[in-house]
Automatic annotation (TrEMBL):
Its main location: membrane. This is Putative polyol transporter 6. SUPFAM superfamilies: MFS general substrate transporter (SSF103473). It is found in: Membrane. Gene3D superfamilies: MFS general substrate transporter like domains. InterPro entries: MFS_dom, MFS_sugar_transport-like, MFS_trans_sf, PLT1-6, STP/PLT_plant, Sugar/inositol_transpt, Sugar_transporter_CS. It comes from Morella rubra (Chinese bayberry).
Amino acid sequence: MEDGKRVNQARFNKYACACAIVASMISIIFGYDTGVMSGAMIFIKEDLKINDIQVEVLAGILNLCALVGSLAAGRTSDYIGRRYTIVLASIIFLLGALLMGYGPSYAILMTGRCTAGVGVGFALMIAPVYSAEISDSSSRGFLTSLPELCISIGILLGYLSNYCFGKLTLRLGWRIMLGIAAVPSLALAFGVLKMPESPRWLVMQGRLGDAKKVMLQVSNSEEEAEARFQEIKVAAGIDENCQEDVVKLPRKTRGEGVWKELLVRPSPSVRWILIAAIGIHFFEHATGIEAVVLYSPRIFKKAGITDKDKLLLATVGVGLTKAIFILTATFFLDKVGRRRLLLISTGGMILALSGLGFCLTMVERSEEKLLWALSLSIVATYLYVAFFSIGLGPITWVYTSEIFPLKLRAQGVAIAVAVNRVMNATVSMSFISIYKAITIGGSFFMFAGIAVLAWVFFYSFLPETMGKSLEEVEMLFIKSTAPRKEAYIEVQQRSNVQ
């Protein structure tokens, strides 16, 4: 790439940033639902007289339904576009929030939770994909990490909602906590309509004229826009010198046959990309973040905090820590690099999880209250959340959205998000049962062991992608799995119609 283009790309495009922020706002709604449920479950259990198994199912069912939503979102976004997929996600979540806020019974509450879960699946898949597709290589890490930052802001707002509305009557408090999420869902559905469509999706539809107009808006100069536009055309199998506004593309170029290319007969590079994407999403939740975010009141209660207000206040600290450190991470992703931050993050998580496991074990085995163990448990929890948020949390979404080739991106990310939701649901729906079986301290030692495996996986399978365009990232994986000539042939075969 020429030096002039690098200079242009080093400048920050405010319009692209604004679009990414709007697209990422749907993640605030999801984060809010996750955070608010951690406290709402205390009141729901008391009001609806449900047992721990029902609490686990209520906590985890959203993620199983999000699995369905994320798989559907991949194909949907290829058909109707990235922008309208975000609108659809907002509407689905709006319906779910209204049902949960109404919640006269456990069955209705579960119906609302399942509906919201489908919307969550759509949101988690589409927000980082849209952000990655409108950004350039110099700011992609920052813009693509915004959805994770918004999730953290939503979680913090959910915790604050617990603390504020928890003072209302038992019957009213938790219903307002859950139902109020309908308001931003409706606002976002209208706000997204003001955003441009992803230029890469427009190219896949053969709408080159529209794509070029959007590219001029999200680039800092005509030269940069033209250079990025030509890269996208080549990746889509279109002659880079083509000047037509509309071209008719084969169905395969528009997303047909993607599942076969991803799962049935993947090339060596696609296989590696899929392993990397599935692996990072698996370990994001297998290392226990959902146990801390969703069950932090129970963890702090086990550590020795018994007052309900103090439990919810300590939980607010988890949300605040998560938001602060993810905000910090957004400014380092395009400077320090994905790989280095990921390894530092996972190493810190191993130490924090081990410390939390030790402190909770000491508290459980002691007959008297251990103030030092209580204090260290809180510190270890906050440190774990901080290390997770500085690396593994945001990088999971950034990395996955940038490594898949253009034609495979939406449905490849959908598969990775489906794995993410399965692991989230597994941890959410089993944590109470696990800590009752092996003690709460033992459960965090287990998460620490899984984090060790995660560190080895990241070191072995995830190359650095910082500073490369989406098309260059594809070549990074191809060149590492085939000699230069075979790599060139593979790109040509993927671009051409078979």
